[in-house]
Structures are given as C-alpha cells and as structure tokens.
Design a protein that fits this description.
By secondary structure, the protein is α/β, with parallel strands linked by helices. The protein folds into 2 domains: about 190 residues, Rossmann fold (3-Layer(aba) Sandwich); about 35 residues, no CATH class. The protein is built from 8 helices and 9 strands. It is globular and about 60 Å long.
C-alpha cells in the first residue's frame, strides 16, 4: 500500500489499483462549526478519545436524516485528533471484501485508524456485510486494537427486514424468539456498540447555522433574512 502515515492523515481505497491512495487535499471540518448536534459530538468525541488512549471503546454507527452532519463529524474528528495519531481510511460499501486485507496491513502500525464507510446499507440478498461483521467481531484472530469502524447510514438497521422474517418469530414462555434470518440481520447493527441518531434540524438551529455561515455580514442583513424567511414560510402555509 506504500502509504507514508507520518505525512498522510487520510487515505481512500481505489478499486482499479486495488490499493490505498493517500489523500493530499483532505476536506477537514472544524468541530465548533457543527451546530445542533452537541449530544452526538460529546458521545462521539468521548469514544474517540478512549480509542486514541487505548481505553475501552465502541465501533460507531451514525444514522439518521441526510444532511445532518454525520460525515462532517468524522472529518471534524480527524481535524481535531490527527496530531494525536488518528488516521482515517475511507472505503466504499461495495469494496468491503478488501477490509480484512487493509486491517492486516495496518494492525501493527503505531497509529489509530478509523475505517470510515459512508452511506452504509445493504439490500436484500447482499452478502458483502459478512466481511464487515467479521472485522467488527473478530474470528479466530482478535480484531486489531488500533482499528475503529465508523459508518454512516440513513437507517438504523443496515439490512432491511421483511414482514416474512417477523412472521417466523415465536413466543416461548413469554419470550420472543426471532428467526435465524432476523437474528442475522439484526446482529450486524448490534456489532456497533455506539449508535448515534441524527434528526432534521429545527428552525432555530437552521438560523444559528445561517448566522454562523454569514458571520461577516452585517447583523441587520441577517435579521432581514430571518424576517424574509419567516414571511415566506407563513405565506406558503
């Protein structure tokens, strides 16, 4: 893979070359510029600091509405912690078969790696999630301690559940026993010990973001925008 991690803080998987490519122009974010997700930032950063320090931590699933800061939170964490040895490797969902090969290459390195998979979900019949599941839980070989999986998704359960799966459940002595199919589908999401939900922003949060983005604009102009926006909303009701 030939990545110089002393000079590279992020890499991405390139399918055609079947290797990692160093990202030279990293799209970093400022943590303070992510508004309206304070709860998620606090939990995510605490888990990340534990990971960097070698303390108990969890793989992370960031799920919920699009455009709410899930991917930006990963970029902001890289910006915040890369000087402490954090590195990010991004891999697309359809290339997860290479995940074990990548972790084999980095497990002995003196860095802490986030394997980042954006917009992760699987359709009925897909089996590539098995490679991810193997990395999350380990097999006969322990999972690498310097690797943390972070995935984003629009849905909490990464594999769709069908009505027929629920019909196969049975009640034994008052307890629900799911079918093997349902257990298999639910177990992948359960491998992420930390699942953080993201919801559409409120109007107040929207205005706070606008104010931040236009912080160099005269305050009167911002107020005029607020008034115009509110009048437009009421007119369209």
């Amino acid at each position: 893979m030939n990545i110089d991690w002393t000079k590279t803080i992020a890499a991405t998987w390139r399918t055609r070359q079947e290797s990692l490519k160093a990202v030279e122009d990293v799209d970093l974010m400022e943590m303070d510029r992510l508004l309206g997700i304070d709860r998620q930032k606090q939990a995510f950063n605490k888990n990340m600091e534990n990971f960097i320090a070698g303390k108990p931590n969890n793989h992370v699933l960031l799920w919920g509405a699009r455009g709410t800061g899930k991917s930006s939170l990963v970029k902001a964490a890289l910006n915040k912690y890369h000087q402490q040895g954090l590195r990010v490797i991004e891999i697309p969902k359809n290339e997860l078969r290479w995940l074990i090969d990548i972790t084999d290459e980095i497990r002995k390195l003196n860095y802490r790696f986030v394997i980042f998979c954006d917009d992760l979900s699987f359709e009925e019949g897909e089996t590539s999630y098995k490679e991810l599941k193997s990395t999350l839980q380990g097999s006969i070989e322990k999972p690498p301690e310097n690797v943390l999986i972070v995935a984003t998704s629009n849905r909490r359960h990464l594999i769709p559940e069908q009505m027929k799966d629920n019909k196969q459940a049975e009640v034994v002595n008052g307890e629900i026993h799911h079918s093997d199919t349902t257990e298999e589908k639910m177990s992948l999401s359960d491998r992420f010990g930390l699942a953080l939900s993201f919801y559409p922003i409120t109007q107040d949060q929207y205005f706070a973001i606008v104010d931040m983005l236009f912080d160099e604009t005269k305050i009167d102009d911002i107020k005029e925008f607020h008034v115009l926006y509110n009048s437009t909303i009421h007119t369209n009701k």
